[in-house]
């Protein structure tokens, strides 16, 4: 199978974040319980064209960072950050889809629109 999604996650916070949830589809190399230290960048991929939802939680603040992404076969690439997950602008076409999140920063893009903010799906909505 070929890669459908590449995602880079940079922890811009001043605390370690831990992955607390992965829903709908998986990211290769990421498991619940994995941690990202401050100012550290990780990269993952997926061969799924389904939606992928991932949550991280700060170890001191308990702030939750929620991410969603997909590279479907019959519609546009989409991703969203819920709050301060730091989604960066992305291309709505092309395979694999490439997404970047800067945890702790403002979102600069959203679901179905790689360069502006508007509402995306409810976290965990696999449909």
Protein model, in words:
With 127 residues, the protein is mainly beta. It has one domain (5-103): Mutm (Fpg) Protein, Chain: A, domain 2, CATH 2.60.270. It contains no helices and 8 strands. The protein has strands spanning 5-11, 17-23, 35-36, 41-46, 52-58, 64-70, 78-82, 97-103. Strands 3-2-5-6-7 form a 5-stranded antiparallel beta sheet, with no helix packed on it. The protein has a 3-stranded mixed beta sheet with strand order 4-1-8, with no helix packed on it. A hairpin with a 5-residue loop joins strand 5 and strand 6 (64-70). The radius of gyration is 13 Å and the shape is globular. The model has no long low-confidence stretch (mean pLDDT 92).
Give the tags.
mainly beta, Mutm (Fpg) Protein, Chain: A, domain 2, 8 strands
